[in-house]
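TL;DR need structure tokens for one chain.
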Amino acid sequence: MNFNIRGAVIQNIQHMDNSELTGLIEDSITQGEEKLLPGLGVLFEVIWKNSDPSEQQHMIQTLHNKIQK
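>> reply
TL;DR here they are.
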């Protein structure tokens, strides 16, 4: 079985307004369900690909500072 997660996530969110998208992200994080992680990964990929290098560096620095070693 071959399932295109990226395509499914993009298709599900492409018509959401800002409020709906915010709710989706916050609910996914709050629920903490493992099955929602791939969708959040797709959203991060979209953000990453559409960020300039300084924004990417800021994201990396935030991750580095917030994840406990």
